[in-house]
Amino acid sequence: MRASGNRLGAHTRRLLRYAVASRFLVVALIIFWRSLLSPYDTSASINPPCLSATNSSSPLPPVLLPRVGSAIERSIVWDGVYFARIAECGYEYEQTYAFLPLLPLCVTIFSKSVFAPLVPLIGYRAVLGLSGYVINNIAFVFAAFYLYRLSVIVMKDEKVALRAAILFCFNPASVFYSSVYPLDPFSHIKE
User: Fold this and answer.
1) Nearest to 83 by CA among 177, 188, 2, 190
2) Which of 17, 72, 157, 188 could disulfide-link to 126, CB 3.0 to 4.6 Å?
3) Distance between CA atoms of 191 and 166, rounded to whole angstroms?
4) For this UniProt entry, which segments traverse the membrane (predicted)?
5) Is there a domain that residue 185 lies in?
């Protein structure tokens, strides 16, 4: 029993190293390819200021690193545009009601607490995007860990469970797991 627990702990540490390394690799590849190729999805540029006066009442001071902030804002694509917009402005448009509030709520909390000191450097919208990236990458590491734990229970084989979780870390959908995008495929069911 003791040897099994030691193996489980060693496998967990190994998996966590792979999960974190895979996130760094995927983010590096995203940055690399976005610098070489123009994006297919141009939804990042369709993000006007908030409609309500309470969210955009006073003009923000200029940011110190506008190019970094602009690069982060342009990297928010697909449904991430809606999640960032909901975090910033709330539910303004009818189409935004298709997106559940957990991710925007977490993004708002992170951007107003942990990443608040970065607002003067890169701007509030960029901080919202950065918060979304960090939240999703942390959630991915937890997802890999719990996939491994569930696989050990179901398959009763720690080595196979470890291989399955490592394959999950390097699967082709990793770009979505490292973007401002929900990990739950049913969190934004559209009719």
Assistant:
1) 188
2) 72
3) 34
4) 15-33, 122-148, 160-181
5) no
Identify the CA nearest to 116 among candidates 107, 127, 106: 127
145: domain range? 2-46+66-177
Q: In whole angstroms, what separates CA 166 from the centre of its chain?
A: 19
Domain assignment present for residue 188? The answer is no
Q: Where are the alpha helices (DSSP H) in the chain?
A: 2-36, 66-74, 80-89, 102-112, 119-122, 124-155, 158-169, 174-177
Q: Is residue 57 part of a domain?
A: no
Spell out the per-residue pLDDT of the chain, length 191, in tens: 455 557 668 888 999 999 999 999 988 888 788 777 776 666 656 667 777 755 544 566 788 888 888 888 878 878 888 888 888 888 888 888 888 888 899 999 999 999 999 999 999 989 999 999 999 999 999 999 999 999 999 999 999 999 999 999 998 888 888 887 765 544 444 44
Report how many domains make up the chain: 1
